[in-house]
User: Fold this.
Amino acid sequence: MESGVSALQAGTVKVGEFHINRIGFGAMRITGDGIWGEPKDHQAALDVLRKAVDLDVNFIDTADAYGPEVSENLIREALHPYEGIIIATKGGMTRSGPGQWSPDGRPKHLREACEASLKRLDVERIDLYQLHRVDPEVPFEDSYQTLLDLQKEGKIRYIGLSNIEPEHFKKALAMGNFVSVQNNYNVTNREHEDVLKLCEEHKVAFIPYFPIGGNQGGTNHHLLKQVADTHQATERQIALAWLLAHSSVMLPIPGTSSIDHLRENVMSANITLTDEDLALLDHLS
Assistant:
């Protein structure tokens, strides 16, 4: 582990019985352009995954749709047998080309997707399996019951939900336990604050995707730069530090294909924002 660079420094969040270091890694961007196909540099993708673990990242988030299949295959090649690492994946989205995504929450598809992820990741049970997106053509209860069934069969340890609204949270809670929610959320996009509050209330981990804005220009704001300058940090680091300070159930998963950006992301765990910083950043909401 590099001196002074460790995801451990941000503390941990509980995901089921797992204690996860609060800077995770989102493995979407290790694939090709448009989250489609193989990466331009196969070895570099493996190196980024291994470096993340070296920096005390112990939570890797992926999905069968990343590539598709590419991200899961790279994770297996780089990190199997995953000693001390939690691998979270998702099912419920299909791909037809770069940047094209379609939900498929049919029980038959979810079962087939889970079985395929088990084989690609080379595990007997997936630590955290997440419904990637609610399919408007399929009753949510049917999709969620499939995950509960897979859990009873021993193929899933814990269930997570992604891209949900409060109504889905409450329906799932009435049917059985889940341990995480993954929604789009960052310092400039707090649309799902209501879902975050439910997570806090029920002690469910909240995994913000696009934690530094993704391609939405989320760190391009003068207030972020103002706070970053006072800490001799980057706007990206301040965006991550804000998430960590905003809620104790927060588990950011910044993704990158660059070791330099990976190191920068993990170093955000060293930043302690002041009350003045937080008050200033509240104006971004």
The chain has one domain: 7-284. The mean pLDDT is 96. The radius of gyration is 18 Å.
